[in-house]
Amino acid sequence: MTTTIHHVNLQANNVRASAEFYTNIVGMAEGSWIFPPAEQVGYISADPSRMTLFPMQGAGRGENAGLHLITPEPAFARNNNLDHNPSIGGHVALQVDNLDAVIERLKAAGIPYSLTGTFAIPGMRHLYVYDPSMNLIEINEMISQ
């Protein structure tokens, strides 16, 4: 199985101030978030003062790869019927080529996870899980559209 980093999500209490830092100090270029079709989008804000993207190019990564800055939303998990809240504390997203194999290993180990399906990134399904140190990890895979 191949695993790569798809994105890093950082909590930003002031998204615009953080975006200015990454643009003006670090020299990164801000991009535009690409949402999946409306019927596949969960409860997620499209407001650039609450979420932004610094894209990273890479073959096979799909949309929205790179650095994500997002305002923490305490109700995010509840509003999306998840056990894990990816908007608080940040997370790293690992892209795999077989999410079902990961799910089977999580089930066999008795590790709880939140499966979102195609949620916020077109052509990609996701799950969230805590690693043994309680770091929130997103694991995702590209799917046919």
CATH fold topology: 2,3-Dihydroxybiphenyl 1,2-Dioxygenase, domain 1
Give the total of beta strands. 7
CATH architectural category: Roll
Uncertain runs: none
Helix-strand makeup class: alpha/beta
What sort of overall outline do the alpha carbons produce when their principal axes are compared? globular
Tell me, what is the CATH class? Alpha Beta
Explain this structure to me?
By secondary structure, the protein is of the alpha/beta class. It has one domain: 2,3-Dihydroxybiphenyl 1,2-Dioxygenase, domain 1, CATH 3.10.180.10. It is 18% helix and 30% strand. The two termini are 21 Å apart. The model has no long low-confidence stretch (mean pLDDT 86).
What's the gist of this structure?
With 145 residues, the chain is α/β, with parallel strands linked by helices. It has three helices and seven strands. It has a seven-stranded mixed β-sheet with strand order 2-3-1-4-7-6-5.
Task: Describe the protein's topology.
Elements (H helix, E strand, L loop, with lengths): L2 E9 L3 H11 L25 E5 L10 E5 L5 H4 L11 E6 L2 H11 L4 E5 L5 E7 L5 E7 L3
Parallel strand pairs: 1-3, 4-7
Antiparallel strand pairs: 1-4, 2-3, 5-6, 6-7
Keywords for this structure?
145 residues, alpha/beta, 2,3-Dihydroxybiphenyl 1,2-Dioxygenase, domain 1, 7-stranded mixed sheet, 3 helices, 18% helix, 30% strand, globular
